[in-house]
Write a structure and sequence with these properties.
- The protein is mainly β.
- Helices cover 12% and strands 46% of the residues.
- It has two helices and ten strands; from the N terminus they run ββαββββββαββ.
- It has helices at 22-29, 91-97; strands spanning 2-7, 12-17, 34-40, 43-48, 56-62, 69-70, 73-78, 84-85, 98-107, 114-117.
- Strands 1, 2, 3, 4, 7 and 8 form a six-stranded antiparallel beta sheet that branches. The protein has a four-stranded antiparallel beta sheet with strand order 6-5-9-10.
- Strand 5 (56-62) and strand 6 (69-70) form a beta hairpin.
- 30% of the residues are buried.
Length: 121
């Protein structure tokens, strides 16, 4: 089935194939653990659950979601029984709702996370 991959490293969003196997979500986003962010209608973005635990990461914002999302994101829909489906959002609409933020350092020294603009040291 169709899915959309948000790639903040390349700053591109494109269609990919998804077989329905959760291991393919892990492969597409490059993460062992993932979390799901609801974006409306029946669509979700799957992102790295440990994205903020890294020293740095490429990030993107989705319109209406306050926190930046870390790493790649895979957009899928879901049916009434919880099974993955093709997204209902169009690729064009998804592109309008995503803002790429580039690479950022993630400071773990205080309580919570502090995100700063990426600098090559």
């Amino acid at each position: 089935m169709k899915a959309f991959l948000i790639n903040p490293i390349e700053q591109k969003i494109y269609e990919v194939d998804y077989s329905g196997d959760y291991k393919q979500i892990q492969m597409h986003i490059g993460a062992d653990l993932f979390t799901v962010v609801y974006i409306g209608n029946t669509d979700d973005i799957y992102v790295d659950d440990e994205g903020l635990l890294k020293e740095s990461n490429h990030m993107f914002k989705y319109k209406g979601i306050d926190s930046p999302l870390c790493g790649k994101g895979l957009v899928l829909g879901v049916d009434d029984e919880g099974n993955s489906t093709a997204p209902t959002i169009s690729l064009q609409e998804l592109r309008k709702n995503v803002t790429f933020m580039g690479r950022h350092n993630i400071d773990h020294t205080s309580h919570g996370f502090t995100v700063r603009a990426w600098t090559d040291a």
